[in-house]
Amino acid sequence: MADTKQVDAKAERKVARLAQQISTFSKAHGGAEGQIAYIGERGARIVLVGTDGGWGDLVAPSYEIAQKAVEKSGITVHEDFDGEFAAKVTTGTYEWKRMAGIQIGG
Predict the structure, then answer these.
(1) Segment 47-58, tens digit of pLDDT
(2) Packing angle, helices 63-73 and 2-28, rounded to 10
(3) Using an 8 Å Cβ cutoff, are 22 and 68 in contact?
(4) pTM score over 0.85
(5) Between the CA of residue 16 and those of 42, 83, 84, 92, what are the distances in Å?
């Protein structure tokens, strides 16, 4: 029983930490929306897109923790990273160079 409480407390701390990071991102970018994607044993990826087009991501140890964190932060969550949502992302020179480097083996 004590082990369960310890695990729950650890998970709640992780939820609080992720929610704080999401809220900080949202404030810095004039608001934010997100999407959660299951990434296997690694957990879940929370993709964030700011109102200004800035983007970032966080990794949670489980899908459940990711869901709780986005709920706690109060951002809008999308089911899919579809065309309309993806179109809100602004990419810069760094991203274009990085993507080109991947395409040509760099």
Answers:
(1) 999 999 999 999
(2) 50
(3) no
(4) no
(5) 19, 30, 29, 31
